[in-house]
Amino acid sequence: MRTHTTRRLLGALAVASALALTATACGSDAGDGDGGSGPKDVKSALEKGGKVTVWAWEPTLKKVAEDFEKKYPNVDVELVNAGTGDKQYTALQNAIAAGSGAPDVAQVEYYALGQFAIAKSVEDLSPYGAGKFGETFTPGPWNAVTQDKAVYALPMDSGPMAFFYNKKVFDKHHIEVPTTWDEYVEAARTLHKADPKIFITNDTGDAGATTSLIWQAGGRPYKTDGTKVTVDFGDAGTEKYTATWQKLLDEKLVAPVSSWSDAWYKGLADGSLATLSIGAWMPANLTSGVAAASGDWRVAPLPQWTKGDKASAENGGSSLAVPKAAKNKELAYAFTEFATTGAGATTRVSEGAFPATRADLESKTFLDTPFPYFGGQKANQVFAESARNVSTDWSYLPYQVYANSVFNDTVGKAYVSSSKLTDGLKTWQDASVKYGKDQGFSVND
Hints:
By secondary structure, this protein is α/β, with parallel strands linked by helices. The chain is about 45% helix and about 15% strand. The protein has 2 domains: about 200 residues, 3-Layer(aba) Sandwich (D-Maltodextrin-Binding Protein, domain 2); about 200 residues, D-Maltodextrin-Binding Protein, domain 2, CATH 3.40.190.10. The chain contains 20 helices and 15 strands. The strands form 5 sheets. The chain has a 5-stranded mixed beta sheet with strand order 2-1-3-14-6, with helices on both faces. A 3-stranded antiparallel beta sheet has the order 12-7-13. The longest helix has 18 residues. Keywords: Signal, Transport.
């Protein structure tokens, strides 16, 4: 939960930028991270060298930084873990507001990037040559970092969703892998009836999980055009999600266990939590945190809201952005490009990251890699197919960080009381509309 001070800071930045926002971008024919000359001469910056400070919590960047320094001996990369997610965003916003202490490169999750972009606190990278990467990345991540011709970050990884299920539990209770969400509800009923200790999944209210499933269902509650914002949780896709999930809540078919808690890991290990619908970055967490269940789990495509569809969505994933306050923007961009494309991206995949690059997703080595944890299954084939089926017309609010921070105060009540998800989403909508207007946006007008 964000503090009141942080909310005021985000609001001040948003309103200052909202009143003067433009969506224009410079051309994308400038020099790139491999050298060249143009408005942004990256090659000269690499030859001159210097220090690049990178704020990130992603562990695979350590090897990338070492490789970058080896390739460019005049450059020193300092990796700093300033906290994960919201903790880092708070520190970054504070540094920007103070006018000093900001890094040269920052890891920013896709849902949070819009808040930094609209505040004009991150560079448009198209003048550095970033526009040429439109076909390098898969559609979901690329859509998340671009607006018109502007490129506000380069995708570092992605989280196309998949259905993780405990095959041992399913086989014991003769459950077929659900291909639709209606079948999923039936599977939940069958499992819980056979053994009241078993739940199809857990859920205590999670903004990211909720919006991802609404995304997959075809809901598009958020629309942003400059400073004009629409928030509407009354569309058909959202209604599909709420109708299904309300059944699970009403019938007490989801465990009241919070994700990433000790109880959650225990449930995944002992089979009392039988499935997860989550991003493709999950395998590493299962391998390290649920080692006792190795061999029990498998991966399948997400159940569909309409039988026969192949719709997917993103859940998680992050980018590398260059703050406006960076001291050496050309050098910062060079590292950003190196870490997210070509050999740098491949290195990160080999270190355990899930790729946002088409080449890595489509490589035979990647696709044919067996996962011992999943009984030798070539799970990347499922993840890659999911990435291809992500709809690209989703957008977040330009103040999504704030909106997510009040999710449990609004929608979360449906998990601990008799109130309904539809009521909670309406309250969340109202809170998001009010906050946006307070920051100077035109919301639902």
